[in-house]
Amino acid sequence: MKRRHCWALAAALTLLPPAHADLVVKDDTGREVRLKAPAQRIVALAPHIAESLFAAGAGSKLVGTVDYSDYPPEAKKVPRVGGYSRLDLEAIAALQPDIVLAWESGNNMPQVDKLRALGLTVHVSQPNKMENVADQLERLGRLAGTEASANAAAERFRKRLAGLRAANANKPKVRVFYQIWKAPLTTVGGPQIISDAITLCGGENVFGHLPKMAPTVTVEAVLEADPEAIVATGMGDAKPEWLHDWDKWTRLTAVKRNNLFHINPDIMQRHTPRILDGAEKLCAHLDVARSHRPAK
Fold first, then answer.
1. What is the pLDDT of residues 173-196, one digit of tens each?
2. What's the pLDDT tens digit per position in 123-162?
3. 3-state SS of 69-99?
4. Within a 10 A sphere around the Cβ of 224, how many other Cβ atoms?
5. Of the options 3.40.50.300, 2.40.70.10, 3.40.50.1980, 1.20.1070.10, the CATH number for the domain spanning 18-154
6. Peptide bond connecting 127 to the previous residue in cis, omega within 30 degrees of 0
7. Which of 14, 106, 189, 251 has its CA 20 to 30 A from that of 100?
8. Prediction pTM value
């Protein structure tokens, strides 16, 4: 009888579901992030992370985010926990998130370390290449348990990116100065994702040799670089007035050839699927610059 009970117990154990393994994801700093189960309560510390969560099918799990998180419209309804560079640690902790999603180059990292010290699980991302946007979507899907939606979004992104890359391959190089802001005069360095977008479009970032994400430069440095095109952002859809401050520098190739362009920062400076909308506009602007070259 005892032997029969032992066999019955063994058979019953084989029918039980296996113990649930922890969910382990490595973030962009190389740190392993461990969850007992997919996150149900998420705080995003950057507008682009909040937007990417919605793109990954996990927007309903977003319980807190920062100022300027305004896309998609549903993101506007999510409670704020400060600005991306000035976080309200108490507000974040009060939301009892399963995970906090941080942005390495945009957040105040000492504050992010304090969140870890409070016992919160933190995942840090830093998508510096266009391909990394798709990787980010997949990773968010794993963390939130929305892999099907996230993987589909990532695949759509990769296909569209491949199409843009093919359409702009082997085009003549255009030397580009990308201006984020006027005072201080701010551009993008080599590690920045916008520099990668410039390369995608057959352009060359004249400050791509600089190691900082958003270095400040001088007017003299821009004049010396003599870009063929100047692309500026600003605060929205309207072309910034200061873009035409360059008009007085008539020896600049970009000015001589009327190659002063504008792109809405929301579709160019956020690491989300919409960056492909910005890249398409950027590529179109560089095509215009090519068309303005003198006939040989």
1. 999 999 999 999 999 999 999 999
2. 999 999 999 999 999 999 999 999 999 999 999 999 999 9
3. CCCCHHHHHCCECEECCEECHHHHHHCCCCE
4. 9
5. 3.40.50.1980
6. no
7. 189
8. 0.90
